[in-house]
Amino acid sequence: MEKPASHPKIATPRTGLLIINLGTPEAPTYGAVRKYLAEFLGDPRVIETPRALWLPILYGPILTFRPARSAKAYAKVWNREKNESPLTTITRSQAEKLAEKYGDNVLVDWAYTYGTPSLKEKLQAMKEAGCNRIVLFALFPQYSATSTAAAYDKAFKALAELRWQPAVRTVPAYYDNADYIAALASSVQTDLDQLSWKPVKLLASYHSIPKAYWDKGDPYPCHCMKTSRLLSEKLGLNSGYLETSFQSRVGPAEWVGPYTDNKVEELVESGVTKLAVLSPAFASDCLESLEEINMELRETFLKAGGTHFHFIPCLNDSDVGMTMLKSVADQELQGWV
Ligand SMILES: C=CC1=C(C)c2cc3[nH]c(cc4nc(cc5[nH]c(cc1n2)c(C)c5CCC(=O)O)C(CCC(=O)O)=C4C)c(C)c3C=C
Ligand SMILES: [Fe+2]
Ligand SMILES: [Fe+2]
After folding, report:
1. DSSP 3-state of 110
2. I need a surface site. Which of 49, 100, 117, 193 has the fewest CB within 10 A?
3. Is ipTM over 0.95?
4. Gap from CA of 93 to ligand 3 centroid (Å)
5. Side-by-side strand order, sheet with 14-21
6. What is the distance in A from the centroid of ligand 1 to the CA of 36?
7. Which residues line ligand 1 (CB under 6 A)?
8. Residue 281 has what pLDDT?
9. Nearest ligand 1 atom to alpha carbon 25
10. Full-model pTM
11. Domains along the chain?
């Protein structure tokens, strides 16, 4: 048999853990947001409309008008000190804290489905660092084709370009994982204990998806409902104290409801003046929690007649959050470390 001209380099074998978040623009500017939205909204996992119909709309009105509006929103929450999006600050910190927890046993890194650092560059770097086994961990607690599958699809596309692929495992959604529910419950309890007032209601607001995707079998809304139910049970709340709603809808089509802004107005009408809101669909605070909930929704609630509003931050890089993320990752690392 003919031998190759030279053998491929063989690094010391290692196991890698790549945490994946959605992605974010590189600057709160029209150009940077346009670039980010073009990649994100160009993904058929996110917008399923046939390309021939969707692309003229995307590259016409959407990418002409939306970047300005979104850039303004990003500017309100931008991390000025580090000149980066809050999603980047938090996701990086989550990866650093996981790396500390695993020490030399696992090479931990992070990447985005859309934008930079990309899955392609990080998978390539991990392979070059000797990772012959890689666990991909999409941080979305509830599964959706639009978030979880989109992330893993992008990773597999990058792997398809490698001649010598690592062995790969993917972390499943953890919407009902006991450690996730316990971490959420602990963060809610800690926050509520620090308030000088008691909320009349607790609202769990999840990012929505188009209703048609649910009708076609995306389990995301069911996962959200289950997270809410388990959280309510874990906290020992009276039935109906924790309500669930969906935010961040885009465009005129029907999305899964009830819509958070309508829900909040209804709550005020029914006499709820003190409200606490959490965002269990995000592992890390982002534009949708920091601006849409903590700024816009707060204003909606107060304008409608509410008196007290509190936003409970996402688990982020908190101690309970990091212990939970490690426990979820550990399940897929079994036998590899
Ligand atoms: C239009 C289709 C969209 C679907 C479907 C969708 C699903 C979805 N998104 C997240 C998580 C995040 N989305 C974020 C921002 C964001 N989402 C959309 C659209 C869809 N999302 C847009 C256009 C944007 C950008 C902001 C805007 O212009 O309004 C973010 C925040 C990112 C950040 O930079 O901070 C997150 C996180 C999930 C979990 C999900 C499905 C379950
Ligand atoms: Fe989104
Ligand atoms: Fe939004």
Report:
1. strand
2. 193
3. yes
4. 23
5. 107-112, 14-21, 131-138, 167-170
6. 11
7. 22, 24, 37, 46, 66, 70, 85, 87, 140, 144, 146-147, 207, 209, 220, 248, 250, 281-282, 286-288
8. 98
9. 34
10. 0.97
11. 14-174+320-333 (3.40.50.1400), 178-312 (3.40.50.1400)
